[in-house]
Design brief:
The chain is mainly alpha-helical. The chain has helices spanning about 50-85, 90-100, 105-135, 145-175, 180-205, 220-230, 270-275, 280-295, 295-325, 340-380, 380-395, 405-410, 415-425; strands at about 210, 240-245, 255-260, 265-270. The protein has 13 helices and four strands.
């Protein structure tokens, strides 16, 4: 992506940290609907006035607080389930055991309890971050009913995916025994590839409308010519360039190179297409093509394989130690009992938090590579600077957050850093 707000997608829900569609958090701009001109420069170098800068920092601070609260809430909930509620011999597990002797059904029942409990516990925070906070800063155009419907769709999608993936993983555990972590990581790798192919034409249309920009349409001629020129010699083969309708729900803008193989496409948000100049859009498209040139999507997918191997191996060792501490004897043919699910999710959540800074560092490096590629290929330094100045204002993005916050949570470089890179070239 050309940019990505580093906190959860607040227009949807604070709980959607891992949603595939990560939109830009963009505020209300001038009454004309245009971004303020870059001539309103301030000490930040982003074109923000002092009032806009103060508001961006306040918005970022509140977003970070909500993000940390959401992560803490998830950890406390999973820890409570793993250590106190869903434990062998406890009232919850005894009642689930009494329902059926089928381990898979027991697992599904426990999974439903975990998911529904998390939804009930996290909903107030999700409502505040996804609806209240966004409207407070004039970022969202959604009604409460619209936000609730989108939140429900995300949750239903989450339930569907977990309802398929968790039982599938436990079947791997039960069938492969001590080698489950290896087989599970490989299976997760292939699932990631499949989801990467389905994302742009199955998952994203659940949340946005798309219009393919036809090359034969005269109004698209300039944009398509620029795209053709940028893609020449890169080996990039795309299914098309699409306009993503976002403006009815949000003032945000977004751009991305999405999909794998025959589903790969360039997606441009309608706010971005309407608000940015042709030269600025060209720089943004060049940035997205940079992800293809440097094979970032492929590297990310293989990175998922490596991380899954490490995470599942660690999880295997810790789960075995935990079960031994409970004096639980495991049948080698069966593997972990279904009630290990809360502990499994807790361990993987903690593992994800620990490697988060590494993921962010790699992502920031990828984004810097694409920024450099866009500048080198287009030579449009002024358009690059103006595009990011507009984005900083549209997103109410703190242009110079604390270095520790960047290290821990930001998967894109700060705006000031990106503009400085263009100034130095």
């Amino acid at each position: 992506m050309i940019d990505d707000h580093d906190h959860p997608d607040r227009a949807d829900s604070a709980s959607e940290n891992e949603s595939a569609d990560k939109e830009l958090a963009t505020p209300r701009v001038a009454d004309s609907g245009r971004a303020p001109a870059a001539s309103h420069d301030s000490a930040s170098g982003t074109g923000m006035t002092s009032e806009q800068l103060a508001e961006a920092k306040e918005y970022g601070r509140l977003g970070l607080i909500c993000d940390l609260m959401g992560r803490g809430l998830d950890l406390v909930y999973l820890a409570a389930m793993a250590f106190f509620i869903a434990v062998p011999g406890g009232w919850l597990i005894n009642r689930i055991d009494a329902l059926t002797d089928v381990e898979t059904i027991r697992l599904i029942v426990l999974l439903c309890i975990l998911v529904l409990g998390n939804m009930a516990l996290s909903f107030p925070l999700a409502f505040y971050t996804g609806h209240v906070l966004e409207h407070r800063y004039q970022l969202s155009r959604q009604s409460f009913a619209g936000w609730l419907w989108r939140y429900a769709k995300w949750r239903l999608l989450e339930i569907a995916l977990m309802g398929a993936l968790i039982p599938g993983l436990y079947w791997i555990i039960w069938l492969t025994g001590s080698w489950w972590w290896l087989v599970g990581a490989v299976a997760y790798f292939f699932v990631s590839v499949v989801l990467g192919r389905l994302f742009p034409n199955v998952i994203m249309p659940l949340f946005h409308k798309f219009e393919k920009l036809e090359p034969t349409d005269p109004k698209n001629t300039d944009l398509m010519n620029r795209m053709k020129r940028l893609a020449a010699g890169t080996g990039l083969s795309i299914e098309g360039v699409y306009r993503m309708e976002m403006s009815e729900e949000t003032a945000k803008g977004n751009a991305m190179l999405a999909g794998l193989g025959q589903t790969r496409r360039v997606i441009l948000g309608d706010n971005l297409l309407d608000e940015f100049s042709p030269e600025e859009i060209e720089v943004i498209m060049a940035h997205e093509i940079g992800h293809h040139v440097y094979r970032h999507i492929t590297k990310i997918i293989f990175g998922v394989l490596f991380v899954s191997l490490a995470g599942f191996w660690i999880c295997d060792a810790l789960l075995l130690g935990w079960l031994r501490s409970l004096d639980v004897l495991l049948a080698t043919a069966q593997g972990f009992p279904y009630y290990t699910l809360p502990m499994f999710l807790l361990i993987m959540t903690l593992f994800g938090l620990l490697i988060g800074p590494v993921h962010c560092a790699v992502s920031r490096r990828f984004e810097r590579q694409c920024d450099r590629y866009a500048l080198d290929q287009t030579g449009l330094h002024d358009a690059y600077r103006s595009a990011f100045r507009k984005l900083s204002i549209l997103n109410k993005d703190d242009p110079d957050p604390h270095s520790l916050e960047v290290f821990m949570f930001h998967d894109h470089p700060p705006i000031n850093e990106r503009i400085a890179a263009a100034d130095a070239s």
